């Protein structure tokens, strides 16, 4: 599955960045983050210690995201990272606004909470979800985040529990979220009294808490590419119908607070991720046989056409903007990318940047780049190795369709060779409509059978 084992690593990295109060009392953001009402933009996984790279990159980024993790009852969760409890989120929100970025939190707390019993992530999540004491602490922790967001006052995206909804869909086995148990009123938390002890109720509880404490928050659920039992991001079976697989995912999420909610409002956004590592890492470290490489020419599976068909149907069935999240940073352009730790190759950043109009036509409103786990390529100089060009020797990866193809010399210390700062910047410069984030998009229409790729 798409395990987020690195959430603790990413969160700790953010903490070590030294997040401090951005200004004295009376602080007011100098820029207003873009409202999510249309258009298309790019963002980054961006901890406190990385914001200097982001602001100096010369790219008009629209979004930055940060995991909130560590567990709700462990004594080491996000609420403890600054004082008073919860202030980490407040500082992050203020720093984002001060630089004109829309802040995004990936709230990934259930798995790491105690007791987390079970032999796999799905069981550990499910058992915590049905532990009354754990869930009482969970709702309290979520309310703390809502208070921070309300104090901030601006628009915030809170992306709730990536992976969890996919595991729960598989437990439902074709049924709705109302058929899967979860502790809600049974948790004893007063604000969710009267809400059913089901996964549908769990979604409704989060939405009620948002409605009550922080209506400025855009709440997002997560559509896992593998939730239906077919991983559309790696599928090679031509008989699979992407739309049919998307319909299964949409049906479950619609029953879990997207289409309706008996206890309040509904989710505003739907997130998706295509991988938690670069394809080169999957091939060379996890030995997947090259399953995560997309075909640049769309001649064979897996490829972007299959995934776009899935996303298009998902958007049609759920009628919510889609956010593509945690997109692997690796590329096959710079010599820097030599398929070693922290500098693995991938194609998806290149493919997405060459197909922004097609992404938007499929319902995608933002693409957020970020390393999903340790070892993945990053956009900063995380390896502390300076400017590297592999002694001028290209790296061949035949499974990835690269025969000494990454021939370009980099002038940046970034572990991706500077790919994101250069090519996201060019996307904004060459397609001015990408900057239109304050009004419905004026993106030019794109024929569904036309795909452009970076060569």
Q: Radius of gyration, Cα only, in angstroms?
A: 21 Å
| Spatial strand arrangement across the major sheet | 1-2-3-4-5-6-7-8
DSSP strand content: 5-15%
> How many distinct beta strands?
8
Short characterization:
The chain has 455 residues and is an alpha/beta fold. 32% of the residues lie in helices and 10% in strands.
Could you describe the 3D structure shown?
By secondary structure, this protein is α/β, with parallel strands linked by helices. 32% of the residues lie in helices and 10% in strands. The protein has an 8-stranded parallel barrel, surrounded by 4 helices. Strand 1, helix 2 and strand 2 (63-68) form a beta-alpha-beta unit.
List the helices and strands and how they pair.
Layout: H1 7-16, E1 41-45, H2 51-56, E2 63-68, H3 87-98, E3 102-107, H4 121-129, H5 132-152, E4 156-160, H6 164-172, H7 199-213, E5 217-222, H8 242-258, E6 269-272, H9 279-284, H10 304-318, E7 322-327, H11 348-353, H12 356-361, E8 364-369, H13 419-430
Parallel strand pairs: 1-2, 1-8, 2-3, 3-4, 4-5, 5-6, 6-7, 7-8
Keywords:
disordered C terminus, alpha/beta, eight-stranded parallel β-barrel, 455 residues, 10% strand, 32% helix, globular
